[in-house]
Structures are given as C-alpha cells and as structure tokens.
Specification:
The chain has 110 residues and is of the alpha+beta class. It is built from two helices and five strands. Strands 3-4-2-1-5 form a five-stranded mixed sheet, with helices on one face.
Length: 110
C-alpha cells in the first residue's frame, strides 16, 4: 500500500508531503496507483521548485519513497496554497478510487 501523509499549516497551506510504499495494484512499471501518486508529487515538486517566493526541498531516497517540504515568502503564498489544493485533491481522488492500495492522511499543524 502507498501511504501518504500531507501536512498543512493552519491556513491550509502545504508544509510537507511524504509518500512511501508500493500499492501492489499492478506489476512494477505498470502500476496505475503508483504512477498516479508519483506524477502528482513529482509535478507539484517541479512546479513549486521553479516559483519565486517558494523554497522547496524534495528527495526520493529509495524507490517507493518521495518527500517534499515547502516554505514560502508572502509573494509565494497564494501559489503554494493553490498547488497544495491541486495536489491534495488529486491524492484524495486516487485514495478514494483505490482504497486497498492507497491511504492518505492529512494533518494540520502550526
């Protein structure tokens, strides 16, 4: 199972997201759940890393694991919020459609 933890601040802005594990929904290289989660996270990481006012750290230390951490200045706040909404909605959709293969936990902290 792919387990995802997203952390939002009290204003709903993405602070971090971590995904780990393999969904087991298909053969390696042909697993639709892993592909969907990977595309969402990699795209968010790419989009955020090229945006003024947003500092992003990302890593994929081993296959089946991806992490990102975000911080922002005032000029990056709205873009980070919108990207976080897009990412979380996409991950929710995958988790709802494939509940046996993907679990999403969303936490809020200051």
């Amino acid at each position: 199972m792919v387990e995802i933890e997203a952390v939002l601040d009290s204003g709903g802005i993405l602070k971090s997201c971590r995904a780990s594990g393999h969904s087991g929904a298909g053969k390696t290289g042909a697993d639709i759940v892993c592909a969907a989660v990977t595309v969402l996270l990699r795209t968010a990481l790419s989009v955020l890393s090229n945006r003024e006012g947003i500092s992003i750290k990302g890593s994929a230390p081993i296959p089946g694991e991806l992490r990102l951490e975000a911080d922002y200045k005032a000029e990056g706040k709205d873009f980070l919020f919108a990207t976080g909404v897009f990412l979380i909605d996409g991950l929710k959709s995958v988790a709802q459609e494939y509940p046996k293969n993907c679990k999403l936990v969303i936490r809020t902290e200051d």
